[in-house]
Structure prediction request, 287 residues.
Amino acid sequence: MAPTIPTVPSKDGEVNKYNLLSIPVNTPRLYYVNGIRNSAKDHALTASLLSIVCEHPVYGVYNLSNGAILDLGQCLLDYTQNASARVFGNRKLVPGKMLRDDEVKKIVDETVKGAFVWNQATVTLFREVANNYGRNTLIVAHSQGNLITSNALFIIERVFGSAALKYVRVYSLASPSPAWPLGLRYTNGGGGRQENAFMNDLVALLRPHNLAAKVGVSRFQNAGDFRTHAGSGVVGITPHGVNENIALNFLKSIRTDLGKSKEFPPDFLEKSSQKAEDAIKMIGVNK
Prediction:
């Protein structure tokens, strides 16, 4: 069988399927949302590698990079939208709704027409999660991808009710997001969220909970894996990379949630290494 050539996205909010191991299953839906200053090739490579190490198809939602200055401006808009979602929006759980697939589609279309959002990737992720309404959905979000994910889920909660997040689980890598929907919490019946971050990552410290833990107030901190990146000093940008964060306990957690063994089979590393090399060559990334 010829290897599947990973698609390099070209449009903001574009969705592509990455399945380097040709795994036949398609549930639960697993999404990857990239962060700031990621090229299209980097996005395709990370989604491809995730599909390998998770042994599961990955749907990449591309957050287009427009250069350092414009990307930073977009992040500030996303951050503002995210922070205000809790402050000015709903602060209580919203009753859920039982809906047919055709009703969901109609609501999604009407919401997108009437909604004002700044990021096309947010619109796309909202559509994807909504169209998978009532089915298990896993989302891996890195950096700015967390702002996109949280904003999309706030819209889901507002439109469909908190119960719509029962089947949604988020794996945050180096997240700066200050707020997440109440319905996502395990304690509120949601699918939950796992935080993975280095405590000397400047971007991750933009999340108030992480900053509080950094100065010794840890009672607000989420469940997850928090470490100090060796050799990066008190604070810096080096620990922010997606590869560094994937190496945290995130991988064991998501494999368990996908019904896989935490540890890789004996022959897996050899097979996966070759698949990874193939992906690098096909995408054309210099590594």
Summary: Residues 15-283 form a domain with the Rossmann fold fold (CATH 3.40.50).
